Amino acid sequence: MFDLTGAGEAELIDEIARLERTKSAAAAGQARLTAVLADKRRHAEAAAGVPRAKQCRGLAGEVALARHDSPTRGGRHLGFATALVFEMPHTLAALECGALSEWRATLIVRESACLSVEDRRALDAEMCADISALDGLGDKRITARAKEIAYRLDPQAVVERAAKAESERTVTIRPAPDAMAYLSVLLPMAKGVGVYAALRRAADTTFDERSRGQVMADTAYERITGRPAQVADPVAVEMMISDETLLGGDDTPAVIAGYGPIPAAVARRLIDNAVRDQRSRATLRRLYRHPKSGALVAMESRARIFPKALAKFIDLRDQSCRTPYCDAPIRHHDHAQPHHRGGTTSAVNGLGECEHCNYTKETPGWQVNTTTDETGVHSAEFTTPTQHRYRSTAPPTPGQPTIEITELEVRIGIALAQYDAA
Question: Can you give the C-alpha Rg of the chain in angstroms?
Fold first, then answer.
């Protein structure tokens, strides 16, 4: 056991460095295990007659659960391990001895992904055969060097990869501290630089009390929505807020669908702005929760078609994908027990899932069982093909379970990612 109190400063630094090397060695060990697992699964499924294109489906999800990680990262871990163990022995050795961190090894693997196996091995040897050459290299220099070698080995493959990347352009949003949000736009390099240059030019020619960054953010909002940044935009968002917070001055945070918790004062201000703005058409919907546990158990239905109300209830109850460690937005409303096997279309058998997790769950060997306990708490147990079990419980709702009807869904005319006072 390392003596924290009796160690000198130099010894503490040495221990920090030793633990960092241990982390790298553990990452290399995980990569070896993952690669062997993939190889065993592939051979077993090939012997069972599974087509090659369908082999190892769902394995990335199993790896993600074992590592307490999201399914997307599980796919990266699986690809990283396969490439590292079977094609890049020098990079694996550098990771194992601590010369590379797991992230920096991932950067090398990522930049070599477009190459043939022979060229990938050549890049691996050139970059990592001499471990001393990695000393002092940060993320940017490692990435730049891997790109340079890849382009020299196969320029056509790099160009084709860049062309394919343009098809992956997208827009994403994720929570930021203090009731803010990060809105990310993935664009081809030239367009991305052009957008930034246009925003910077707008900031350079605007002179008021706002900072440069504020002008750029406001300009982006105005050019995307076509509305002044100071005016509330009539985009519907969904907020769950307890009646005590809305009407009684309680400080329990509210929850914005697809974003997460926001301070009670911010929630009340958003609602107040929406109510005052006639364009927002704010409405309320009562949600019912269990008086003991606070679990969401029912919702006032305004729709005549039950499945729509049920889907909305599942969205509000689950808030994000119910697969453990996956925080992706809900895209599918899925039957835990498949409908063709007698599964009912009900709140208990229903799950909110992202597209990736829903398809993973349908691969052979996976099983999901759902239950609701006596206090109304909804749970789902995921069983993988190796019979490992992982449990997921619906997140709690805002406020304290003091009365049966305690929550309101508020549709307000402003998206939090575009928050402005009305």
Answer: 26
